[in-house]
Design goal:
Strand order of the largest sheet: 1-2-3-5-10-11-12-14
Distance between the termini: 15 Å
Helix content: 25-40%
Order of helices and strands: EHHEHEEHEHHEEEEEHEHEHHHHEHEH
């Protein structure tokens, strides 16, 4: 049964001109004053989600995006602020990109946020997908194997630091602590001070490739997974693969258990109107994500077309209507969305978490209107949901 409805806001400012005929992604550049409006928009969405009974607001860590798409560089700091202006809403890290952090600094920062917010921050980790961010901040991304190796070691360090009063680590990338003299003794172990008070720490990770190695790593550490919402298409393969990985680790899960499905949506009185209204925001999604490999099925020629003004139809760039067939995007009347969600409940009996979001580029007023409409016309059909 779906019990927890959340929403994702990755941090886009209001863009002004929108869609395939607007400014190409690589030509966008906003003044600092406009980029800073991301915090006002984040707070407005958080207050609305809290008042409307959503379970959580997921935020995304990103850097250097003068294009205005993802403008929140420190989601733990933002979460502490949002906890002051909301009452119950949980605040999800979707995600902290560990290759851009020293693992113990990330562990410390989360522990502080956990304590200051009374346990309302949800920990989440990812490997990253922007070379401009990860490589600039000292991580690996171009070398996928190095990226995964670093990520896995970092997550093991972080979770160990959360769970163990004293710990040490000897690995490929880190020796913690270093063997140095300290105040009259040889340093052999350290303690994270403070550790999170709310234990065990719940950890989430995006499922993108759904490779056996990645899923086995999640199962070994009890990590929950988010599918969709920009990171991947909606498909049953990752869902069954996740359950199979946990079975290999000796734990049986119901299909969909410990997973969150991310869906983009736009509600209107008719499908035609919803498609028309959402299309410019969907096109911003394609402009931003296609060159990064997150628009499935798109060709190199279509990626080049998406980077220019117009010409999308001639190149056959997928439309919003095409994407609604995948199930990861919904456009239409509220009752149709209720039916789609009820179908997910039937197909995945262990599913408790669903994330419903407006697309990249959606203006603030529309984000708020859609959150309110979903809460009024869809949430009442799921009486077991928790806010």
């Amino acid at each position: 049964m779906i019990r927890h409805f959340s929403t994702l806001y990755a941090g886009h400012v209001d863009l002004g001109d929108l869609g395939q005929h607007a400014t190409p992604a690589n030509e966008r550049r906003y003044p600092n004053e406009h980029l800073a409006t991301v915090f006002e928009k984040t707070e407005a969405i958080a207050r609305a989600a809290d008042d409307l009974g959503y379970y959580a607001l997921w935020l995304a860590e990103h850097h250097f995006q003068h294009e205005g798409y993802e403008c929140l560089p420190n989601i733990l700091m933002v979460s502490v602020q949002l906890a002051h202006v909301t009452k119950r809403l949980r605040l999800g890290c979707g995600f902290n990109i560990t290759p851009m952090w020293h693992p113990l600094r990330l562990a410390e920062d989360f522990a502080v946020a956990d304590i200051l917010t009374g346990g309302r921050v949800i920990f989440g980790v990812g490997r990253g997908y922007h070379t401009r961010e990860v490589e600039t901040l000292g991580g690996f991304l171009l070398d996928s194997e190095a990226n995964r190796s670093l990520f896995e070691e970092q997550v093991e360090i972080i979770l160990g630091a959360f769970r163990e009063e004293r710990f040490s680590h000897r690995g490929k990338h880190y020796v913690l602590p270093p063997a140095v003299p300290y105040r009259g003794y040889e340093l052999q172990e350290i303690t994270l001070v403070p550790r999170p008070l709310h234990q065990p720490v719940e950890c989430w990770q995006p499922i993108v490739s759904a490779s056996p190695r990645a899923l086995d790593f999640m199962a070994a550490h009890g990590i929950k997974g988010i599918i969709g919402g920009g990171a991947a298409t909606m498909a049953e393969g990752p869902i069954t693969g996740y359950r199979e990985a946990f079975a290999r680790a000796g734990r049986e899960l119901a299909l969909g258990e410990n997973l969150c499905l991310g869906l983009y949506f736009h509600l209107a009185d008719s499908r035609e109107r919803a498609l028309r209204e959402m299309t410019p925001w969907f096109e911003e999604h394609v402009k931003m994500f296609a060159p990064l490999g997150f628009v499935p099925g798109i060709t190199e020629g279509q990626i080049r077309a998406a980077a220019t003004r117009g010409g999308w139809a001639a190149a056959g760039v997928p439309s919003l209507e095409d994407f609604t067939r995948s199930g990861a995007w919904y456009c239409g009347a509220p009752e149709g969305f209720v039916a789609s969600l009820k179908d997910l409940e039937q197909r995945y009996p262990g599913l408790e978490y669903v994330n419903v979001s407006s697309s990249m580029g959606t203006p603030t007023a529309v984000c708020l209107e859609q959150l309110a409409r979903f809460a009024k016309e869809v949430l009442p059909h799921f009486p077991g949901h928790t806010g």
